């Protein structure tokens, strides 16, 4: 099998002895000794290319060693070792060989460290980003509930997005929707908006559209606009043109992630016309202005 190439133009980082040292920092000394048998760690090859080549070798011995020694996990979890694009590329190769690796990565994240105080935020963020791209993150939803109770709101909100997309426990979803942090509520609705079957959760989307936070309500209106709700079309269009940068950014983001990817070409043309300056109904202008304010 051909090794997947790591394009230099795609990544801003280059592997060197320091990145290898970072990847080895969480591994046993025996891992470094074995790697020294295979290569010169003073002048090592590109780490991404080495991992991809090793993981795809036909005999599998080197791949097994790199996985079982947790060297691959450490390389994936440390943003200073692999870029996001490189990590996703390696993760895809590993998941094709071991469909349970996403669970193992979660376990490795927390191994031999007190949760959550000793687990760095940047590692948690990288881990959740990688899991989000895994083929079946739904089976991890119960484990991810632990992350939704993390004291750092950035972790809590990222977990809420994943759980909104994959969790089926309605009581847990309802509890997250009542979070006092509007980032958590907005991310939860964004996750719900990415579901294939939205109907069981539509009541949450409609409630979110009435949320006092523009972050949350914009997500709700984007999903409703996608479903043809004219009032939500109008509100979303006006928010995209808002002079308040935070409101216009939220509306543009919601349009990009929750509207455009789900519409056909004809629908997109109609939506573009709706956003390009069609006059809003006089009866709703005052209500929209009040929401924006």
3D architecture notes:
By secondary structure, the chain is mainly alpha-helical. The protein contains 18 helices and no strands. α14 (214-226) crosses α15 (230-240). The termini are far apart. The relative contact order is 0.06.
Query: In angstroms, what is the radius of gyration?
Result: 23 Å
> How is the main sheet built?
none
Q: What is the number of helices?
A: 18
Shape: elongated
**Distance N to C terminus:** 58 Å
Mean pLDDT comes to 86
Strand content: under 5%
Share of residues in helices: 55-70%
Count of individual beta strands: 0
The secondary structure category is mainly alpha
Elements, N to C (H/E): HHHHHHHHHHHHHHHHHH
Uncertain runs:
1-15, 277-293
Descriptive labels:
elongated, 293 residues, mainly alpha, single chain, disordered N terminus, disordered C terminus
């Amino acid at each position: 099998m051909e090794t997947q190439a790591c394009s230099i133009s795609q990544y801003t980082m280059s592997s060197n002895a320091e990145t290898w040292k970072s990847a080895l920092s969480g591994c046993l000394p025996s891992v470094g000794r074995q790697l020294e048998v295979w290569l010169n760690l003073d002048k090592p090859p590109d780490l991404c290319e080495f991992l991809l080549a090793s993981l795809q070798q036909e005999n599998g011995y080197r791949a097994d060693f790199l996985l079982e020694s947790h060297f691959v996990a450490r390389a994936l979890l440390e943003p200073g070792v692999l870029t996001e694009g490189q990590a996703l590329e390696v993760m895809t190769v590993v998941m094709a060989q071991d469909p349970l690796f996403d669970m193992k990565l979660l376990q490795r994240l927390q191994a031999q460290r007190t949760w959550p105080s000793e687990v760095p935020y940047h590692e948690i963020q990288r881990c959740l980003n990688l899991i989000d791209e895994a083929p079946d993150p739904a089976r991890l939803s119960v484990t991810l509930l632990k992350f939704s109770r993390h004291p750092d709101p950035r972790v809590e909100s990222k977990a809420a997005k994943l759980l909104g997309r994959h969790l089926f426990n309605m009581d847990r979803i309802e509890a997250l929707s009542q979070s006092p942090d509007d980032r958590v509520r907005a991310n939860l609705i964004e996750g719900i908006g990415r579901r294939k079957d939205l109907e069981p959760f539509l009541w949450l989307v409609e409630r979110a559209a009435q949320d006092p936070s523009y972050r949350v309500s914009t997500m709700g209106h984007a999903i409703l606009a996608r479903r043809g709700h004219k009032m939500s079309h109008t509100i979303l269009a006006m928010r995209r043109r808002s002079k308040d940068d935070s409101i216009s950014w939220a509306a543009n983001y919601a349009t990009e992630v929750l509207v455009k990817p789900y519409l056909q070409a004809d629908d997109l043309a109609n939506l573009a016309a709706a956003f390009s300056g069609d006059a809003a109904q006089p009866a709703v202008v005052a209500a929209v202005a009040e929401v924006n304010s």
